[in-house]
Amino acid sequence: MDKKKIAVITGGAQGIGLAIAKNLSDAGCRVVIVDLDKEAAQAAATPLEGAAYAADVSDENSVEKTIDEIIENEGRIDILVNNAGITKDSLLVRMSMEDFSKVIDINLSGVFNFSRSAVKKSMMRNRTGNIVNIASVVGLIGNPGQANYSASKAGVIALTKTMAKELAGRGIRVNAVAPGFIETRMTDALSDKVKEGFLKNIPMRRLGTPEEVAKAVGFLVSEDSSYITGQVLVVDGGMVTG
Ligand code: NAP
Q1: Is the pTM of this model over 0.85?
Q2: Which of 8, 10, 16, 187 best tests ligand 1's pocket when mutated (most atoms within 8 Å of CB)?
Q3: How remote is the CA of residue 82 from the centroid of ligand 1, in Å?
Q4: Using 50, 70 and 90 to split pLDDT, how confident is the model at 2?
């Protein structure tokens, strides 16, 4: 029997990341959950018989150390899902440099940090690997109040395309998933009035579920997508069609 694929999911303790971890575990992978809080990561990993690590994706040293430990304990990294992300919303004129930089550091530099280390230390050596970056539709179309977040996600999309071109010859595929509005703690906090406003712009007239995003990731890391790299798969109920 084939060995289980080792799938690392950043920000996997809850929300979309946890749904991705469950889906990949069901698909036969050994999941490795990385999150800021070790206890939260462990609580998510234990029912999946996976492993848990604490790391801040924006901290280069923390990421290098975590990747070293994962490779030492698991042997290699076959799949990396860069899912960790935050928002710090406000209108451009009120946004502090600190809030702009914080979001870029975690959402964009975090993807760079984790990918570079996993590629250099495992995937390139094994001449195989699969990376999926969780972007957002706002990285394609922008969104008032999210200058930092939308710029970070647009950066993730460009980084995805560049990594795909650099790494295809090494047997490594790199794609992105761009969710629209998904039912997580982020959208739970919104008032019914704000949700109604969102729904008007979603042709399917409902929010998506974390599981629907996870299935898109599952497709991109499977052999069913073996000739697909450098693409952005939009999961948004029809909001962005261009
Ligand atoms: P979430 O519920 O807030 O989960 C994000 C996870 O990432 C949390 O466990 C969080 O830990 C962790 N995290 C935050 N900063 C981190 C860091 N520096 N290093 C490591 N882990 C970190 O978010 P979500 O809604 O599931 O979103 C997951 C991804 O999907 C994000 O990239 C987000 O931008 C993207 N997305 C979400 C939606 C949506 O509608 N929800 C739409 C489009 C795209 P703590 O709880 O300890 O902070």
Answers
A1: yes
A2: 16
A3: 10
A4: low
